[in-house]
Amino acid sequence: MPTIRETILTALHARLSALPATALRGEVLPERVPADGLLILRDGEPGEPEVTLSPLRYHYQHRAEIEAVVQGADRETAFDALTASIGAALAADRMLGGLCDWIEAEAPRPIDLPVEGAASLKAAVVPVVLHYSTADPLG
């Protein structure tokens, strides 16, 4: 049986997979970026939990990351549309169907990456904070 953490990350990946861009999880950047863009979900860091007693609960603010990448002539517009679609997908259900208490994205940190012999890439890391609680930090 998967842990709460894994269930939430799987649900987040499924939400990203519904977008027009290709969504991967934990993969390396492929040689070619699809025309609609590329999203790579990184599991991130759960951080130190707040702990409450009676009943014992560990409250996490897990920081996952979504790498958003576009390539082509109209990179700026494509990048803007891609990051806006991430925001809309997260805002549609901030609790991922009841799996977590809250999910929120932070502002992207965009960069331009030159590619020898091809159009440069526009990429960003979009931090996503997943708030959830569990009775066991390993479960």
**Strand proportion:** 35-45%
Largest sheet: 7 strands, mixed
Query: Mean of residue pLDDT?
Result: 94
Q: Please mark out the parts with pLDDT under 50 across 5 or more consecutive residues, or reply none.
A: none
Distance linking N and C termini: 9 Å
Helix-strand category? alpha+beta
General shape: elongated
Structural notes for this entry:
- The structure is a single chain.
- The chain has 139 residues and is of the alpha+beta class.
- It is built from two helices and seven strands.
- The model has no long low-confidence stretch (mean pLDDT 94).
List the helices and strands and how they pair.
Layout: H1 4-17, E1 22-25, E2 38-45, E3 50-52, E4 57-71, H2 75-91, E5 102-105, E6 109-115, E7 118-134
Parallel strand pairs: 1-2
Antiparallel strand pairs: 2-4, 3-4, 4-7, 5-7, 6-7
Summarize the structure.
The protein is 22% helix and 42% strand. It has 139 residues and is an alpha+beta fold.
Question: What labels would you give this structure?
Answer:
single chain; 139 residues; alpha+beta; elongated
